[in-house]
Amino acid sequence: MKMWSGRFEAPVEESFDRWQRSFPYDRRLLPYEIAASKAHAEALLEAGVLTEKELAAILGALGRLLSEGVPKDDDASIEDVHHFVEQRVAEQVADAGLKLHTGRSRNELIATDLRLYVRDSIDHAQARLSDLVDAMVVQAEKAGTAAIPAYTHMQRAEPVLLAHWFLAYAEMFMRDIDRLQSCRERLNFCPLGSGAVAGAIVPVNRETIAHKLGFDGPTANSMDATSDRDFAVEFVQHAVLVANHISRLAEDLILLSTTEYGFAHLPDCYCTGSSAMPQKKNPDALELLRAHAGRMLGNSVTLATTVKALPLAYNKDLQETQTPLFDTVGRTLAALDIAAGCVRGLEFDIPRMRIAAARGGMNALAAAAFLARRGTPFRKAHESVGRAVQLSLSKKCELEELSTEDLRRCDIEVPLDSFRAALALDSVLALHDVEGGTAPARVAAAIRNVRERLDSLQEPPSERS
Q: N or C end of the chain: which has fewer CB within 10 A?
């Protein structure tokens, strides 16, 4: 029997009934539906709707449902997770079970279930993000003072520490953790007690209900509470940024592991081979992570479009926000696990990277800086070094291999030994001695900083500032 069938003479058309059901996917919300039902039942006792005996019977039935877990079979007679719980409780405790829905609505229930679900999903995502950042930090610590070319416009620009490269991604993922925490704080208010649209019809204690479920308090407006999906939209939009950052990492690692670059070696366990070419080692995990970002963006667009023009308050359209949300959660958690595994298994060809970081004019800016420190206006120094680069290209040599006479032709009058020392790779790296720069001492401090920030995330989410 439907939860609303009393008003209708004719049954629902069969194909429409199958099409409009949400139980095939919202049954994953069962643990949250049971938690919300327990809190509501206890509030009904306080409001005088249930007796102690009835409450005990209902809580027992809910406990048994929880221990049985999410049903694996799709009972076609069940409309949604709310219908499932109410029907199963009523089967076990008869009339007492039929009192459970007093003073509440499915509108507030699904809003509550989804907030609990997203809250848990944020906690899981933050834990996996922390694991990914930890993998970055471990690799940065392992890299020591190993150098790698940095690129702008996909062209070699300046040498940086490999550790600095890893920390760039660590910062992206730390921002993701921050954004998710902010989303968690905004969503952590409880819709229970909002009724269908105007508020509960029995005097339930909304503060007590909220705190039993780990919320900071009740929502402020019943119409907003039952129709709000901002928290789902916001979570999915943050997940898009997570996916984009993973995609950027994947693209970098795909490039760095090609024969043409030859800097990185991907772990075999995250690669596959070719059915035709025996020599191939394909970065399939990274390619799928890169493609995953597009699916995530699609989910975000679906959610935002679904809610963009809904009148107050609840509308059935909101049911369509669930599948993109569930898909986003599943994909995000899986992608973070795969990304962390890939990062932990990376190996690098340090000598090859060092050679690449020291050749091809990568020290040109250091040369201009050397002249500027000796009093040459930087713009003139830039021009002179640019001519020296042209000369080194024509002579097929490096900047530091130019002779004193070569440098004079470029209006560079400096002691050759000092000039060459300033252009050595270690000197070039040490030159960037500012907070956030790639100088070894600064990178070591940055590693410690990220490690401290990671350690602070070990506090329970509710206690983080």
A: C
